[in-house]
Amino acid sequence: MDQFETFDDPACIFCDQPIAPGVHDPCAINLVTRIDRPRLQQKEQTFFCHMHCLQSRSAMHPGVFYIVEPGFPTVGECKT
Ligand SMILES: [Zn+2]
Fold first, then answer.
1. In a domain, 68, yes or no
2. What is the spatial distance between Cα 26 and Cα 11, in angstroms, rounded to a whole number?
3. Does any domain span residue 64?
4. Centre of ligand 1 from the C-alpha of residue 65, in Å
5. Which listed residue, of 24, 36, 53, 70, carries a Cα 20 to 30 Å from 64's Cα?
């Protein structure tokens, strides 16, 4: 995958397949490095993936993905 891949053509970091719009897809994972340092010294990279690939391929328990629960608010809903 090209590190400069754009959101116009996202491919999943786990299966390298295109990500069609869906109930939760496409998903983005924002990685922040140097989280212990001042904000201006941190680095960020965004990865794209399918929700089911993240859930099935990570070592995290599927239950931690509370974001898929029905009624989980959007960012906009949290701000109102
Ligand atoms: Zn995938």
1. no
2. 9
3. no
4. 16
5. 36
- Assess contact for 9 and 18: CB atoms under 8 A: yes
What range defines the domain where residue 29 resides? Answer: 1-59
Mark the residues whose beta carbon lies below 5 A from ion ligand 1: 12, 14-15, 50, 53
- Ligand 1 center to residue 68 CA distance, Å? 16
65 contacts: CB under 8 Å, gap ≥ 6 = 51, 54, 55
pTM (whole model) above 0.70: yes
Q: For the chain, what percent of residues have pLDDT higher than 90?
A: 51
Distance (Å) from CA 38 to ligand 1 centroid = 33
pLDDT digits (tens, 9 = 90+) for 50-72: 999 999 988 888 788 888 889 98
